[in-house]
Amino acid sequence: MTVFDQRLDPAFFDRVQARVRDRMAEEGFDAFLTDHPEDIAYLTGFFHHPSERPVAIWIEAGGRVVMLLPELEREYAQSQSARAELVAFFEFPGIVSPFAVLATAVAPRGRVGFASTMPYERLAAARAAMSGAELVGSDLLTRARYVKFPEEVALHREAARITDRMLDAGVQLVSDAVAAGGDLPTEAELERHVTSTGTALMYAEHRNVVVASLLAGGLVYSGANSAFPHGLPSVNRLKAGDTFMLSLGCAVGGRFIEGERTFVLGEPTPDQRRYHDTIRAAQQLGRETIRAGLECREANRLCLDVIREAGLGEFIRHRQGHGIGLGMHEAPWLEDGDATVLEAGMVVSNEPGIYVPGHAGYRISDSMLVTDDGAEALTTFPRGLDDCTIAL
């Protein structure tokens, strides 16, 4: 069996940095500064646990890339072959502030962009240390991350394969419990099982596993608890007649995928069938309409109109979807307020849902790779109610 390697080749990060420098040139930046953990992983391949001690990247138009980090992270960054020159400070807050250490190393000047995600305290520290430069907020890096490189798409595909296996494992656990005639699992037990399935698959079949903010897992909820769109797993035990949701995903090489399905335990009622069939129809339209050249807000309207036209608009609680990459949720947003034009190579979720208070929620989600003439669903678990009914 071929072993899947989650670590990207160092040359990949040279191409990423070149893309960012091209965008810096277009927007007139001499350098760019970011402290967002996902940006740092994108630019250098360094994944870390964020804390009060800043880690930041300084990238110059001329090619220099510098990582500011605490001394205690230096060897960890080296072990990951971080694609940057390392400049370390000893401790935070320090006699000399970390950003002053960076400023001494890079001599900032000219027009410097900073990531619009930077917290105020860090931005203030950077401004104080870099008074000779003009610091300008920009979402340049956010936009640079929209379109995935082929190596990233390969990571997303593998994450989708594992997510489908996690959904299989969740259904199997419930089906086995039904066949055994004993207690059905609780939401929490089901969540632990699918999480352990995902992580076990990675460690068994991959090398250089990259531990991201969430390696594998998700939300598992049943009955009325699933009417909360992001309800956390509880000790509620599944029971006959329940609608239950497996909202799962994982990250391979730090690149996320989500796959969500809604199930019925036993013969569906007419209401359960109506709700599920409506969401399936909306999600199917999303799969058919997402494509390069379509505005995010238009994709959202087309998808959610299916629910409104079915007379269930009062139960809509959220947009059609969002971008996926180094973050499980990231821009662009498939929502009425986002006019971003979809491009080939983006990965977005397609996850319309309805939530009926006191009854249940219904949501179907696939992670979609946008193409020139459509979109490919990377997650493939069956979506129809007949396939998502567990017989008693």
UniProtKB/TrEMBL annotation:
It comes from the Bacteria. The lineage of its organism: Bacteria, Bacillati, Actinomycetota, Actinomycetes, Micrococcales. This is Xaa-Pro peptidase family protein. Residues 18-142 form the Creatinase N-terminal domain. It holds the Pfam family Peptidase_M24. Residues 155-372 form the Peptidase M24 domain. SUPFAM superfamilies: Creatinase/aminopeptidase, Creatinase/prolidase N-terminal domain.
